[in-house]
Amino acid sequence: MVATRTRLMAGAAGAVVAGGLLVAAPPAATSAEAANRINVKKAAKVKQLRKAVVKTARNQVGSSYVFGSAGPNSFDCSGLVHYSYRKATGKSLPRTSHSQRASLKRVSAKNRKPGDLVFFNGNGHVAIYIGKNKIVHAARSGRGVRIDNISGWYGSTLGGYSRVVQRA
Fold this sequence. Notes:
By secondary structure, the chain is α+β, with helices and mostly antiparallel strands. It is built from five helices and 13 strands. The chain has helices spanning 31-36, 43-58, 77-89, 97-102, 152-156; strands at residues 8-10, 16-18, 21-23, 38-40, 64-65, 74-75, 105-107, 117-120, 125-131, 134-138, 145-149, 158-163, 165-167.
């Protein structure tokens, strides 16, 4: 009888090599994704946090747009998101729209909820979804923080949705 030895080695993307056989593990959330999510056990608390984010962002409507600004009196798009989440939940998200998109779980348009992030223009612009196909965002210089429909330019450059607050 010949003794065989099985070696287990972790490979890329959670794959395991077992005795020369590559076994793929299901993809896990990236550490950045996990670090930027807010997981809450109770559905009522999830809804409360999402509402607080939307309310905080809505309260900034009329504020000036200033590139690189993250409040409290002026914002750029990702600065408004960063400020709204920090103020409403205590959670600091990454500071740029590209980093925000890369670090969060994506959701479909069908499953979007108020408080989710909405990305446009190759992820170069971000907004907060407030329901009924509307967003609050720091549009650009001269327009400031405002509420818009996801239509026209916004609809044609829509890149997707990401979720921060979710049920654990």
